[in-house]
Specification:
The N terminus is likely disordered. About 45% of the residues lie in helices and about 5% in strands. By secondary structure, it is mostly helical.
């Protein structure tokens, strides 16, 4: 797949294109972001848009748009079951930042976890960050209020009493901090329909599969916590599923799973023997293939690239992402009545817009 930057059209290896023109009938904010494309034929697909937070995690109540009555001393990302190791010296860190730059803004707290995922997979840190950004649900509601209080009272204004009413200027600053933090990834994200959870939105079945795979990072962590035994059997299902909400484990597990899927996809060819994934891709273009397998699994990605996705399956995928039946039909009509063409264009448009590693360098 090559991106024609002049026409915003995806050119597939071996021939064929899929237009990626914007579809005005689709709202990206409430459709594909984190959408679950899993079907019975495609196990291991990660994605499902979070619509709430981890139901098993305790939360402090806040007041919408205003400070809560007390500041929570626990970081908004949680106390952390498995902290990300940071063995880099300042000198090594500076060299890493030069050769593999990473810019995270309000998500700086995840730098060590992303670095660990990069070390274990060989993927550039900006690639991993771009995939997370396309998946992670943002802090919102009470979770966002908690994070705002931690920043405002715990870092910026230690002298202020969290229980006291703020003056006009301080209240305006509190709201400004809240707006800034609204772009923060929330590791407690949870989808009540699919039950996908965590920063990278693992489905329960995929998480268990990864956790019982010998040698995987999540397998190692689960064993150390007594959630999986030495025979790689789950001994505490509830505890294991809660491990999805540990940011480090979620980030590394997703990167490792993506690498496995990408390796599978890279070994596949089209009917004429040409590889589905061109050799020696530039890093940023490879990142888009990585997200493709992240979203579709190796088998689903192969169907997209070979043009063998059926209309019947595509209709189900579109329904998972676009709730409005009229919008779905409008998309299909715009692509010669083909649900497969509509979904393919829809997915590539999202990938082109969201998987931009340069935004994280």
């Amino acid at each position: 797949m090559q991106i024609n930057t002049n026409t915003s059209t995806w050119a597939f290896p071996g021939g064929g294109t899929a237009a990626a023109a914007a579809d005005s009938s689709v709202s990206w904010g409430d459709t594909l972001v984190g959408g679950n494309t899993s079907t019975a034929a495609q196990p291991g697909v990660l994605l499902a848009q979070a619509d709430t937070h981890n139901p098993s995690a305790s939360r402090q109540n806040g007041n919408n748009g205003t400070p809560a009555q007390s500041a929570n001393t626990t970081p908004f990302w949680g106390a952390g079951t498995v902290p990300a190791p940071n063995a880099l010296t300042a000198l090594r860190q500076a060299e890493r930042d030069r050769t593999d730059p990473l810019r995270l803004g309000v998500n700086e707290v995840y730098r060590d976890a992303i670095t660990l995922a990069s070390d274990r997979t060989g993927y550039p840190r900006a690639t991993i960050a771009a995939v997370i950004s396309a998946e992670a649900g943002p802090l919102r509601g009470k979770r966002l209020d908690e994070a705002t209080n931690q920043r405002f009272y715990g870092e910026l204004h230690l002298q202020l009493d969290p229980k006291a009413k703020l003056g006009k200027a301080d209240a305006a600053e509190w709201k400004a901090v809240r707006r800034e933090l609204s772009a923060t990834w929330d590791p407690q994200s949870y989808n009540t329909t699919s039950k996908a959870g965590g920063l990278t939105q693992f489905l329960e079945s995929t998480w268990i599969e990864s956790a019982t795979k010998p040698g995987s990072y999540v397998n190692q962590q689960a064993k150390s916590l007594g959630l999986v035994n030495d025979a790689n059997q789950v001994v505490d299902r509830a505890g294991l599923l809660d491990l999805r909400f540990d940011a480090t484990t979620s980030i590394v597990a997703a990167a490792e799973l993506d690498k496995g899927y990408f390796t599978q996809l890279s070994a596949r060819t089209k009917d004429d023997g040409t590889p589905l994934v061109p050799a020696d891709l530039p890093a940023d273009q490879k990142a888009q293939y990585i997200y493709l397998v992240h979203h579709e699994g190796a088998g689903g990605a192969a169907q997209i690239l070979k043009g063998t996705l059926t209309d019947a399956r595509a209709e189900g995928l579109l329904q998972n992402h676009v709730a409005d039946a009229d919008k779905r039909q409008s998309m299909i009509d715009a692509h010669e009545g083909s649900a497969a063409k509509a979904y393919t264009a829809y997915l590539w448009q999202y990938i082109e817009q969201r998987i931009v590693p340069a935004n994280f360098r």
